Amino acid sequence: VRLAWLRYGEDPMEPEGVPEDSTLRYLKSSAGAAVRKPDTPAPSTDGWPRDLPVSGTNPAGENGAMSVTEEPVEFVRRPPGLQSVPDAYGFYVLDDTMAPRYPSGELCLVHPHRPPRPGDDVVIRLAPAEGEAPIAYLRRFLRQTADEIVCSQFDPPRETAFARDKIVSVHKVMPLHELLGF
Fold it and tell me: Which of helix, strand or coil describes residue 28?
């Protein structure tokens, strides 16, 4: 299909010179009518305020441990799902322990008050040892007991139990559909 048709809904849908038996000719609805062009353009993000702080992250050991700074290193656009969450924040992933879901360099946006459910991705912050900086981990929340929270990582696949008495906070990483307000 033509790029202008995909982006703006301009006619014609197909590039010129497409043979009649081309698979592009089968982009028809079940009734055989041509695919309808969109009525409205994609929504703009220009109205989203650029006030969501992104915390700095630094490697802090093995297995994806990171230190997260309190001071923001930049501000990004605040999506609708975080509009009413003044202390929401973002951070950049430092390694591939959660790849392919979150490869190194990926920006994650966090809702610090939404309780995680099994299968949600979370940032777990641990209390610092004497004289050390706090450590955080990006993990998949699996289950919890009175004494621990069990999470997993993807690469290499591994489950980790975090003792509740060592946990400072568990914050939910927001998936795209929730960031967009769905």
Answer: strand
Residue 165 corresponds to which tokens in the numbers above? 């008495």
Closest by Cα among 128, 158, 130, 166 to 142: 158
**Placement of tokens 């209390």 in the chain:** 127
Whole-structure pTM value: 0.74
Q: What are the pLDDT digits (tens) for 124-162? A: 999 988 877 789 999 999 999 999 999 999 999 999 999
- The residue type of 35 is V
Query: Which residue reads 């093995």 in tokens?
Result: 62
Tokens of 69: 């700074």
Q: Give the whole-angstrom CA distance, residue 46 versus residue 77.
A: 9
φ, ψ of residue 76 in degrees (nearest 5): -120, 170
